[in-house]
Amino acid sequence: MAKLLAEFYGGDMKTNPGPQQSVATAQGLNDAIKRLRARLRSESGQHATGLTATQLGVLASVVREGPVTAARLAALEHVSAQSIAQSLAVLKAAGLVHSEPDPQDGRKKLVSADRSATELVERLLAGRASFLARAIDQVLAPDERHDLEKAVELLERLAAADLSDGGI
User: In this structure, which CATH number among 3.20.140.10, 3.40.1050.10, 1.10.10.10, 2.30.130.30 belongs to the domain 50-113?
Assistant: First the structure.
């Protein structure tokens, strides 16, 4: 897989080991993040909500940002307007969000979270944080905590990277 990815991104593994190593690291990071996200969903009780990860992500954004437009949600979640509309339809049907006309611009709708949505998001986030805190306490040695703090900082930088000048 790493060789295929290196070729896709233009890396010549025989003459330039840098891109190969970056691709292998990227694949390992992607795999670790997927496993951790799955574990967090399981530990938090997310599966019991009946909502998808995407729908819960949108709901969390509404709770955090609300009242908010669907266009703003799409930008926050890095998805299409159609995807946001689909998620909002499910969340509205479940009574977790509602929309009202924007008082500044009646053509727009502002989406707000119901109190039950706020409680749900807080419960899920608390479950995730609780699992992670226990895992950090039980799995990491005290000297590894600094490494984890540095990794968090690096992950934040990767998440904020602007690769518009040649990224995918």
Answer: 1.10.10.10
